[in-house]
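Exercise 3.2. Students should predict the tertiary structure of the chain below and write it as structure tokens, then compare their answer with the key that follows.

Predict this chain's 3D structure.
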Amino acid sequence: MELSATAFVPKPIRIVAIGAGISGIQFLKDATTRLPNISITVYDKNSQEGGTWAENRYPGCACDIPSHAYQYSWNPNPRWSRLYAEAAEILEYLKSPVTNFNLRRYIQFSTTCTGANWDENNSEWNVTLQRNETPNDEISVKCDVFIIAIGRLNNWKLPAIEGLDTFQGRVIHTANWPQGLDHHGKDIAVIGNVASSTQCLPGLHKDARSIGNFVRGPTWLVPHVFSPNGEAQVNFRHSLLYYTDSKHI
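Answer key:
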């Protein structure tokens, strides 16, 4: 007996993804446009999409590679304001595809994933979640595919420096910068010289009473390729608009 193509109804694939940052948005766009017969929900602990760019707000926070290389091929932006875009501009860019492609309907914000276990008998994942406003109430969802898209930049911790626990001043991690922090007239010590410290130092030293940067080894720094203003910046903007205009491609 020959079975028709509709003899069996395909089972919808249930997908749960954790994280609505740059990788979570990419996966959500691909899943909803390229995968048939799925249901998908993305959970994020923050109140908005953007991941690390929604969380990081220290002075000078910016992209450390050219902005035009830090974007989706399917959502190009030729109008970056500067070569190394600042965090607020990158966050607005990441919000744009979520709005333009109607992806926000698949995302549940302010929800933290607390665990996930594979059920061998039923061949499915059991994912446990907590709503931020009701942390004592645990939610359990089941899915066939479980995606981790939380990145590497949101599990910050303070270094194990002797005496840090008895320090009388305020201890701040750049990845957990307090909103509206007033550092005017303060004596500031910055530990480390990687991207975040290199970016925040210029913004802090203008208003600090004193500032010191303590590092284990030197790092190589060069001036910005393009200044925020001036002839080079104007040419930077107009050349990109010219070469990305469909009339010139």
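Discussion points: Residues 164-214 form one domain. Residues 205 and 211 are 6 Å apart (CA to CA).
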